[in-house]
Every structure is written in C-alpha cells, then in structure tokens.
Amino acid sequence: MNDLRCDADRLATRLVEWRRELHRNPELGFDLPLTAAFVARRLGDLGVEVRTGIGRAGVVGILRSDRGSGTVLLRADMDALPVQEAPGREYGSTIPGRMHACGHDGHVAMLLGAAELLVPRRAALSRGVAFCFQPAEEGAGGAREMIDDGVLETTGATEAYALHLWSRFPAGTLRTRSGPVMAAQDEFAATIVGRGGHAALPHEAADPVVAASQAVVALQAVVSRCVDPLEPAVVSVGSFHAGSAPNAIPGEARLLGTLRSFRPEVRDLLRRRVREVLEAAAQGAGCRLDLDLTPGYPAVVNDARAAARLRTAAVEALGTDAVLEASPLAASEDFAFFLERVPGAFGLLGAGDPSRGIDAPHHSPGFDFDESVLPRGAEILARVALAPE
User: Fold this and answer.
1) Whether this model's pTM surpasses 0.90
2) Per residue in 249-303, pLDDT tens?
3) Catalytic residues
4) Which end of the chain is more exposed for a tag (fewer CB within 10 A), N or C?
5) Domain limits of the chain?
6) Which one, of 222, 218, 386, lies nearest residue 317 by Cα?
7) Homologous superfamily of domain range 2-180+300-386
C-alpha cells in the first residue's frame, strides 16, 4: 500500500494547518464548541455519517463497510489543559492560561487525516470505521461518558485503537506492547483534623502537622514494603498544606496524593494500605482523619492480537527498526475505559527532536511535538482500519 503512504504525505500541509488552528484555540474538558464544530465540519465534508453531542461534547464519524460486520473504533482526544504556554510560537495559544500541552491537537489532526485516507478506500474495508473524537481526557473521564452514552453500541465497535504523541521519544518511532501500557490512577485527599493551639504549649494541642508529616514518611513504605518488588506501583504526595503562622499549631493539615498501579490486585492493596497508614498516623497524634479516596482511570491494557495488528501497521508505515517494545508508563489515560469493553491497542508515537528543542515534558508550558510525524500517525491509523479481520 505504497499509495497510502504517498497520499498521507500529500496531506502533510493540511494536517499541520489543522493542528495549528486547534493549537491557537484550545478548549477545556467538555466545553469544546469550537473544536467539536471544527471536527464535525471536516467529517461532514468527507460525506461520512456524523453524530455530535455524544458524551456531552464528543463527535463521531461513521464510515460503513459493505464487506463485513463490526466496526473498528479509532479515537482521538480533543481537550487542552489549563497551562500558560511559553511565549514565542507563531501558532501559540491565543487564550491566556490554556494550551494544548499534551498533543491532543495533533491527535485530532491525525484522526481527521486517517478519515481523509479511508473514505476513498471504503471498498477495501473489511469492516466499518468509527472516527471517535473524545472530550475531557484530562481528568474528567470523557471516554467513560461517551461509552455511557452508547458510542460502542451505536457504532457497533468490536475493536478500539488510539495513538498518543510522545515528545520524550524520537520522532518517527512507535512503542506498543501486549498487556499493560499505562497505569491505573487513583487520588486521595486527606484532612487530618487536630486541635489547634499555641506553638509554645504543644501539650495542650493535638498537632495535625506532626501527624501529616509522619503519614508522608510512612506512605513511602507502602510500595517498598507492601508491594511485590516485581510489581510496578507508585504512591506520591503532591500537596501538603497546614497553618499560616510560625507560632501557632493549626487545627488541620491537608494532604493530596496519587496512586499508580497496573494490576487490579495491586490497585486494591494500595488503596487499603494508604487508608490504614493515614488512619494510624492521625490516631497516633490524637487527631481525626477525613479521607476521600477517589477512583480514577483504570490501567490501559492492550489485547495481544490488537497490539500485533498495531505493530504491523506501524512497521509498514515506519519500518521495522522504528517499532519498539514499550515499557509500561506510570502515567494514566482514559482510553482504558474503551479497552475494558472491547479489545484494542494503544501506541505511543514518538514526536520529539532534542536538536530542535522539542523535548519538553507533557503538561509543561514548553511542550511541543515534531509535526513531521502527523502524516505517519494518520497512515498508521488508516492501516489498522484496512487490516483484514
């Protein structure tokens, strides 16, 4: 299918234009009127069936096949982040305090490119294709809302695939694997409630700062002493707030943290032990614990057959040496909700180039990616859809 590669290359200028238009106009969460309209307009121009408002703000284009049943769902996330972009880019965000700091603008461009490649090849499809543009990946669970709104049933999806641009990997490479790719994520908010008092009279108070400090230290042992050393897991405290004066013991201290794991058994263990550690630290200092332990995204777990299909498509587009085995990442992704319902695969498309300064971490003000990979991402998604069942 060398003509597919040539057609993808001919789309390069348009893909960059689309990406930059989206980058200039970032929108957050489920509030995506401009982005959703942009996507729906281009899908409509291609003549595919378009459905909007799925999962509040999601857009789906459906390309039917006459040759077989079932549908392969290709997903791109659309939302940006509340991050102030570093100045100096000609295509920089025009909205203060918002930017596409995770590559979702590129994901949208690549999936629109895949639609451009597949519509004229409809006769070659052995099954239908659903181009799924999802809101609210960044923490709000837009995938789950689209699923609850029936996107899998209405499209007849039997498999699901997604690519994520990754600035820390060299441009033009792809990493995927069978099994866990990204971690399950949970968050906790712990308020240790004590009894405030004068710092010179600590015996008359119940000090939540001491309790919270002991909890932070003890939480570091949850992974090192409770989890099998061969099992990846993370417990991190990201926020610690208490008091406002040097000579006063405050009435409470607040901790915010995150848990990461790859297997359900480890996830359950982390939740249980974190609760026990926090309760013990509070009780030992004569304080009370108010704990909100919030389940987040499950682990992204690739189906073996689907991962092989994605790997084959990537080899055809990038070459054998450019397709590598992924190591599991402790970051999380709500594409996991799709993979809980149907088999599929998730891949990381390298988009970094340190020689050009394109290697800033995701979610940072300096984040960017090498736009030359956009045609290859569109090509890989198209090849996955064209692969025989």
Assistant:
1) yes
2) 999 999 999 999 999 999 999 999 999 999 999 999 999 999 999 999 999 999 9
3) 79, 137
4) C
5) 2-180+300-386, 184-295
6) 386
7) Zn peptidases (3.40.630.10)
